Amino acid sequence: MAARVLFVDDEENILSGIKRQFRKQYAVETALSGAEALELIKGSDEFAVIVSDMRMPEMDGIEFLRQAKELSPHSVRLMLTGNADQQTAIDAVNRGAVFRFMNKPCPISQLVESVNAALEQYRLIKSEKELLEGTVNGSIKLLTDILSMVAPEIFGQLTELRETAREIARAMRLMSTWDIEMAAMLSKIAYVTLPPQTLARVRGSKPLDPSEQLIIERLPETSGKLLVNIPRLEQVARIILYQRKNFDGSGFPKDMLAGEDIPLESRILKVLHDLQMQESNGVSTSAALKQMSGHPGRYDPKVLQTVGWFFMAAEEEEKLLPPIHVMVAALTPGAVLINPVETAEGHTLITAGQKLTETMIHRLVNYHEVHRVKEPIKIAMPVS
User: All domains of the chain, ordered by start, with CATH?
Assistant: First the structure.
């Protein structure tokens, strides 16, 4: 499939000449203004290369390329200009991230050479992105698979935590939820490093001796060290490191970070982890949130308020049919657990009250095939 190239110029005769010259080599699109070009970028597949004139009415090339970069960050951007002064160059590089400049009038041979160089740059960017994504996704899958085998009930809790964290992050207008979703899923990855006897006590909610308690307190640091050298997970590692830090700056890690200087994702996880722990001890969500609001230095009040609104809205919206008992193979996404899902030995895999997702069910079926789960399972389906 031919590479897609977009040319933007307010002179129609120039665009016609370019289209005749390049149509056999590339899939060429043209636009007579920055606004028209932005609509093309929004409404079509990604352009490999975007070539823009500098001087255009209403929106100049620098502003157009700046907006094009936000809409299509992987596209390589070129600029044609008859005004190659230093300030134009600085603005184009800083605001439009321009790969190469060409002076007008530009010889066809130079334009072809520049577009080909930009295409090669685009292929490098895409290859690096695919390699990075493959490495990151493979690493995350390996780590979560290990955790699901070592501590399946903890893994079940984290699956629910990830979904709630995503919704809270959206409610608090985070631009991207990827970091907090990954931090939620990997927030307890260091549990795989615990001695078997300590892990057994944690899983059974049994008292820990002082040395074990110290190990548990430092788990965020251990998790961060496990993740920090994996490409693309540096920020995820930092979020996990600060997930137990109190809003007033006390707690772990012992540094000067406090208040809104603590990553917002960490502040969200702090509230959700503590809420989940309270619920696992039999405290209702509303009672737990009320109790947590009595510790103003511990939690970000904005996060606590948003979490309260989220669960209040969820309780009002969620109307369930009468409970039924089903086998593992009959579970469907959206079902709410009335009782916890337990292993044949009595260990909790997924706590009561959770709404099952397709991923949770898939992993539960896989676990059941090898280790067996207590059946039937008591669930309730939403009225909708």
Answer: 4-127 (3.40.50.2300), 151-316 (1.10.3210.10), 318-384 (3.90.105)
